[in-house]
Design a protein that fits this description.
The chain contains eleven helices and 16 strands. The chain is an alpha+beta fold and 299 residues long.
């Protein structure tokens, strides 16, 4: 992993995603997110090379590319884990994890990770009304920005750096992503607007890396892509469609291909919040005919 200095005591490790680091002193640090489980050895080795030992964990949300090493790090180093209430609930039981992760559509490797590495006790639960979290004697501002996940948070450091998790994607990632993932599209758009009002000069984006540019411009580009996809998907409803017909047409439009059951489940999980948002904002409506749900474009 590449170690990048951001500002003051705040650094970033770049692997498949970005891991934020706040140096408590010369040898101890707090990690913001912790990557995929298969990156564990590389993560710990990179910290060792930097002379650092993790002393605490703060996780933005419970997706496996952000929370993959929480359990192993917590147990190996005997350190506390902090997460928001909603995300902590998702990893509290095997049943909750299986429901949230679409377990039966996952690859065998991912199932093993979910079975053995994802369920984890949370030592410090960040409540919806909390505006900060204190870990290892250091207080970090917390901002609740749901949408990408149900209780996603972003975290500030004393150096004026915001670890933004998946609240925004960098321009390079935006150029390649087909459909930005969010659990709730409306909340995601609200959070992308809200992040532009936060008082930070430096940012770390999980996908991917430090960002010191104009956060308003980046947020607008993120929102533009989501709105573009909503408009494109709405155009498909020129005739009544069942949910499956809508998913099939959407995949053809966006260029999403299915080779396995796992891919089908993932793509439907990506598409469903967009279809729901079209109904929520009044662009479309649903009706039930002959025991089948049909979606219509409103005039």
């Amino acid at each position: 992993m590449e170690l990048i200095h951001v500002s003051g005591n705040t650094d970033c490790l770049l692997g498949k995603t970005a891991v934020g680091i706040y140096r408590i002193d010369d040898t101890r640090c707090i990690l913001f997110d912790n990557g995929y489980s298969k990156e564990y050895d590389e993560l710990v080795g990179s910290l060792k090379d930097a002379g650092l030992t993790p002393a605490g964990l703060i996780v933005s949300h419970a997706h496996i590319d952000h929370h993959g090493n929480s359990k192993r790090l917590r147990e190996a180093f005997q350190i506390p884990l902090a997460m928001s209430l909603g995300e902590a609930g998702l990893i509290a039981s095997q049943a909750a994890l299986e429901r949230y992760t679409n377990y039966f559509g996952r690859s065998e490797e991912e199932k093993i990770s979910i079975d053995t590495e994802q369920r984890c006790p949370v030592d410090c639960i960040i409540q919806p009304e909390d505006t900060s979290v204190t870990l290892c004697g250091i207080t970090f501002p917390v901002h609740h920005l749901p949408g990408h996940s149900l209780d996603h948070i972003v975290i500030g450091t004393p150096d004026g750096v915001c670890f933004a998790g998946d609240a925004l994607l960098t321009e390079n990632v935006l150029r390649h992503v087909k459909l930005p993932y969010c659990d709730h599209v409306g909340l995601d758009l609200e959070s992308k607007e809200a992040i532009t009002k936060l008082p930070y000069q430096h940012w770390i984006l999980s996908h991917k890396g430090p960002f010191d540019g104009n956060i308003r411009e980046l947020a607008e580009k993120n929102m533009d892509l989501v709105r573009l996809r909503l408009a494109e998907l709405a155009e498909l409803l020129q005739r009544p469609m069942t949910r499956d017909e809508f998913y099939q047409a959407s995949r053809r439009l966006i260029g999403m291909h299915i080779g396995t059951y796992d891919q089908l489940i993932r793509q439907e999980r990506h598409l469903r919040p967009y279809l729901e948002q079209l109904v929520i904002d009044g662009t479309a409506r649903l009706e039930v005919k002959n025991d089948t749900i049909y979606f219509y474009l409103n005039e």
